[in-house]
Amino acid sequence: MSAALAPAAPAASPVAAGRRRRTRHRRLVVTGLVVTVLALVVVGLCVGERLYSPVDAVRVLLLGERVPGASFTIGTLRGPRVLTGLLAGVAFGMGGAVFQTMLRNPLASPDIIGVSAGASAAAVVAITLLGASGPGVSVVAVVSGLVVAGLIYALSWRRGVQGARLVLIGIAVGAMLDSVINYAMTRAGVYDANEALRWLTGSLNSAFWAGLGPLAAAMAVLVPLLLVVARRLPILQLGDEAAAGLGVRPDRARLALLLVAVALVSVGTATTGPIAFVAFLSGPIAHRLLRGTGSLLVPAGLVGAVLVLAGDLVGQHLLVARFPVGVVTGVLGAPYLLWLLARTNRSGGRL
Amino acid sequence: MTLLHPTPTASSGGRSASLRRRRSVGLTVAVAGLALAVLASLAFGTRVVGWQDVVAGVLHPDMDVIAQAAVQSRVARTVLGLLVGAALGLAGAVMQGLTRNPLADPLLLGVSSGASLFVVMGIAWLGLSTLTQYVWLAFAGAAAASALVYGIGSLGREGATPLKLALAGAATSAALSSAVSMVLLSRTDVFDTFRFWQIGSIGRADLADIARVAPFLLVGAVLAVGCARGMDALALGDELATGLGQRTLVVRLVGALAVVLLCGTAVAIAGPIGFVGLVVPHLARAFTGPSHRWLLPYSAVLGAALLLVADVVGRVVARPQEIEVGIVTAVLGAPVFIAIIRRRQVREL
User: Fold this and answer.
1) pLDDT higher than 70, residue A307
2) The pTM is what?
3) Is the N or C terminus of chain A more exposed, i.e. has fewer CB atoms within 10 Å?
4) B188, closest residue in chain A (CA to CA)
């Protein structure tokens, strides 16, 4: 919290009152997001071709009972789908927010600059051409995500890394990696549109319990790690000299954060594919909700979960056909990106 | 004003002997390269064919000999590759000239995705089924996407900088290709060839189809060449161009029409293919300098050669499957794009 760095104001001053108001607002937002996520989980479990009551969902998933019909529909189909969406959404939201904050550029999110595509390409090559499965795919995806992120960073380096160059190079790398994904599909003889779209734009269609294990295990390690390292974020935002003066090594802290963020995004991508624009949208939406105070990480993760779960519900039930979640978030996310560009361009700001 | 051409002055000293020599030598090299690419396109494919069969398959095919029939099917494919490659090379050169933007490319700026989306919607919702119908929709889609990307990219003080245009193009492409996926998935009954509208390919060539769209390509090429002088003037900036008696708005509109015709036709018959239009003008400028009267024909020749080479690579690398040419051009083209960006100062982006 940047407020922690201000000299302690005497209680009952306007500053303290403002801080109390901000804390209250923040609690309200986070609570609201948690409630929204839970509501979406319940709807995702209970709504579909056949409706089941939330009681059935609890009996099947938490008490492990056999309920005719519900055991299969919720236990085998909707349960893993919703939980995978929840976890992947949190991973994309948090990872994206770290990228955008660290690189000080809303466009520098992993799904726009090709990092997610790197993880996805590795996962699809491992699965289709090398016959990998299970946790191995996640490991390959994380390694590849890190390599691609390092490559983009290195390619953008010319007497320092400039946001504009990094974003453009990232877009080109992403286009190239999408072609690698398509190549792997061709080689493996995959002509099924749904399967191809899973690795290009992300989908929950192939979520099942077995894939949930590695994702949950990885996130149980990565999320706490990220939150610990992120305690340094507000100090880094003061600028490098100030941070160094406060005893934080800016380069190291930034690198550590980015590494964990890449790992998070890659693990999510290995399971669902790179769900379009979730990493890109979550941070800015969380920032608006919070009115720009305090750490973005947890709210951005929750927003990510909301986006994925809501997008999947829309794609499954509200449209003329069933669409993978990534197609829905792709269509909805791009106008926001265009609006952001238009607004930035009009106000003459630099991207 | 930032000049976005690699060479800061348009055709100063452009009459020098060394440049003339470079242009003529370059043209010889380009045409020779194109001839080799055509030969390779006829000779190599998923099926390995002997030279006698290649010659026979082109000149007097005996359709009972499988090898010769295979070569015969490559003839149409080669013709299509020549036309589409030339169209994309020209379109890229015109886009880069009109926007003074070294990163312009039909796919990267969303023009191809716009054409693709309109065609797919036409097939799914209007029940269109013939190439002549697709072409008009592709023109409409290309025009709409161009207007959107250029409109958003040119807002603000500095006008359409390469960065703004590239970002607006990337965002538009992402949105449009998601929309294409949506339309395709909603009508899987209609689309047996989903990939074709997402990734360009010249594997489904048919000489009758090619003949139907060739006139559009011809008109597009004529319009493009007609803009050559105007684009030379635009390279100096709008004020100077107006001072030289060029009507900048007319040049831009005619050029945009050329781009729409060339890209729209290419997409209608081969799907969206990226990076040819981006890379080719840069290769050409190495020989021609900035003069568009030279740059445009060069770009057509080099575009045709590059697309054919990429297609041959895609046929040979993954035997027994084929890799669509759109995949190969992206893998080969993206590094060039990155090299172009790395050569520039950030303030120019």
Assistant:
1) yes
2) 0.88
3) N
4) A193
